[in-house]
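Support request, please re-run this one:
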Amino acid sequence: MGTVVLVVFEDAETAGVNTVGYFFFWVLAIVASFFRRGGNGVRIAAIFLAILEAFVALGSMGANSNVTDDDSPGFRIVRFSPGPFGLCAALVIVVLLCQGSAGRWFSRLRAQR
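Re-run finished. Output below.
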């Protein structure tokens, strides 16, 4: 939703840079569509993607902390990443998927069709 708001009120470049910051969340959304059918590998992939997004969020928080005023193009990508919201969301996803009940749910036997 934030990317759409950026397209309306800012410009397409800013929206594109914001989309890059949320890249691992986009991939995680695709992986989440396989939660019902997938096994433990889907859960591991989701945990891995959430951890990667947490690192991106930490990088964006550091870039937004006014430590540096670098305006190079590569630095802009980090500056528009998820920030504290992305870090909290990624940590919640990791904690929930690492619980024993989640492991049992993803390892359950599935009926053959």
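The mean pLDDT is 78. The chain is about 70% helix and 0% strand.
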